[in-house]
Amino acid sequence: MPALHAFANPARFLKVARPLTPVLIWLGVALALIGCWAGLTLTPPDYLQGETVRILYIHVPAAWLGMGGWSGIAISSVAMLVWRHPLAAIAARAIAPAGATFAALCLLTGAIWGRPTWGTWWQWDGRLTSMLLLFFVYCAYIALARADADRGGDGRLPAVFGIAGSVLLPVIRYSVVWWNTLHQGPSIGLTSSTIDRSILWPLPILLAGATLFFAGVVLMRMRMLLARAKSEARMRRMARP
Amino acid sequence: MKPKHQRLTLALLGLGAVVAAALLAMSALKDQAAFFYAPSDVVKNGLPLNRDVRLGGMVAARSVKRAPDGVTVRFTVTDGQATTPVMFAGIVPDLFREGSGVVAEGRFRPDGSFVASNLLAKHDEKYMPPEMAGKMHETKTLKQ
């Protein structure tokens, strides 16, 4: 990945990241608001669930970013272990709390959706359980990465954990195919969808908005982590006799 | 081989091993991780008696009979190959209807019927506006 080598220098990265952060965040918020408005007012209700179906406009982007976040951690972990890219460990640590938040949001909106449609807040079926596991794995990663950084570790251990945790992604995706579950099968494939077009169309807007917002938050957190590392290094230099 | 390529090979091998391990574990879990039994599973593997299980499938068309007491409901669950009669006393979920998916929690009786203590509605992955539903709706909630 020669293109990314340019950003091995944090100063060069910050020069791009600083102006990019607010652009990503505000563009993401704007798209998400447009998508929510469209999803709440312009689309028809579902034939079976009625108005309840509208929670999918929050639930699906949350699930997408909950899983997308971990893909980001796994890719960063590979870049960290293989290419020793100096920003990769920072990126993985920056993604983790944002991904965990969206995974939690997915679980919460799923429970709120499950109560009126299935008649239950929570069941231990394959899809729900594997998503809950992903949330716990995020929490473990956050703790591990922080402990590693606090003790001056080289970030290799969290990177191995980040790669190992990616096992959950196909499990979550195919849980509804492999096992019989309470959760319905996949609605959205690569090329087709079983959601009618009139209900589906605001979803890409929301996915794009949430993803841009997510990217903006990750850049913000990367800048924060870089600034903290810089100030800690300065403190150590000043403390030296 | 440069150290970088060595590390790349190692990382890819590690990733492959982890994914293969997970796939093996998942296929071994196939039956244990099932959320519910289908009626044909019961025919195949015998009745799981004296323990709480879940029975899932489609509510057979024209099978729902409500008792005069107003709370007891009897219906048949089918998965296309076998059927099981179910009895339930209580409030059914909003999405409970004939031709739609259902998961019943409860116990089998020795005669092969099922007494449910709780009903969950299972819907399929299709979403469409009400005016389209009459034209193209055919439920296939239960995969075979």
From TrEMBL, chain A:
Membrane topology field: Multi-pass membrane protein
GO cellular component term, pick one: plasma membrane
UniProt keyword terms in alphabetical order: Cell inner membrane, Cell membrane, Cytochrome c-type biogenesis, Membrane, Transmembrane, Transmembrane helix, Transport
Subcellular localization: Cell inner membrane; Membrane
GO MF, one example: heme transmembrane transporter activity
Protein origin, superkingdom: Bacteria
Domain (Cytochrome c assembly protein): residue spans on this chain: 29-183
Role noted for this protein: Required for the export of heme to the periplasm for the biogenesis of c-type cytochromes.
Descriptive protein name: Heme exporter protein C
Species: Sphingomonas gellani
Name of the gene this protein is made from: ccmC
TrEMBL record, chain B:
HAMAP family assigned to the protein according to its UniProt record, in alphabetical order: CcmE
SUPFAM superfamilies (alphabetical): Heme chaperone CcmE (SSF82093)
Keywords of this entry: Cell membrane, Cytochrome c-type biogenesis, Heme, Iron, Membrane, Metal-binding, Signal-anchor, Transmembrane, Transmembrane helix
Protein name: Cytochrome c-type biogenesis protein CcmE
Subcellular location(s) of the protein: Cell membrane; Membrane
Topology in the lipid bilayer: Single-pass type II membrane protein
Record family assignment: Belongs to the CcmE/CycJ family.
Keyword Metal-binding recorded: yes
Cited function: Heme chaperone required for the biogenesis of c-type cytochromes. Transiently binds heme delivered by CcmC and transfers the heme to apo-cytochromes in a process facilitated by CcmF and CcmH.
Side of membrane Extracellular, spans: 29-144
Cytoplasmic side: 1-7
Gene Ontology cellular component annotations, sorted alphabetically: plasma membrane
Residues annotated for heme binding in this entry: 123, 127
GO biological process entries: cytochrome complex assembly; protein-heme linkage
Pfam families per the UniProt record, alphabetical: CcmE
Source organism, top-level taxon: Bacteria
